[in-house]
């Protein structure tokens, strides 16, 4: 099933804990080594979603996005 979001999965329970909306047809993702940002390449919308995973400066919490931006090459 296709969707325009990224699922956050608990490593403890192996269940989806939340979803984060991204662009159209997310195709690939990458995480910074420190876990503070998740980059999602969106094929159909031809842009990049950037999810800030840190909340209130207390470290990485994937999916609890303080901000989400879409970047498109001019």
Summarize the structure.
The protein has strands at residues 5-9, 16-21, 26-31, 37-42, 47-52, 68-71.
What attributes characterize this protein structure?
45% strand; flat; 74 residues; mainly beta; four-stranded antiparallel sheet
What does this 3D model show about the protein?
Helix content is 0%, strand content 45%. The protein is mainly beta and 74 residues long. The strands form two sheets. Strands 3-4-5-6 form a four-stranded antiparallel sheet, with no helix packed on it. Strand 1 and strand 2 form a beta hairpin. It is flat. The relative contact order is 0.23. About 16% of the residues have low confidence.
Strands side by side in the biggest sheet: 3-4-5-6
Relative helix content:
under 10%
Taking the alpha carbons of the first and last residues, their distance comes to: 31 Å
Radius of gyration, whole Å: 12 Å
Number of helices: 0
Total strand count, please?
A: 6
Describe the global form.
flat
Q: Give me the secondary-structure category.
A: mainly beta
Query: What is the residue-averaged pLDDT?
Result: 76
The main β sheet shows up as: 4 strands, antiparallel
Q: Which blocks of ≥5 consecutive residues have pLDDT under 50?
A: 56-67
Relative strand content = 35-45%
Order of helices and strands: EEEEEE
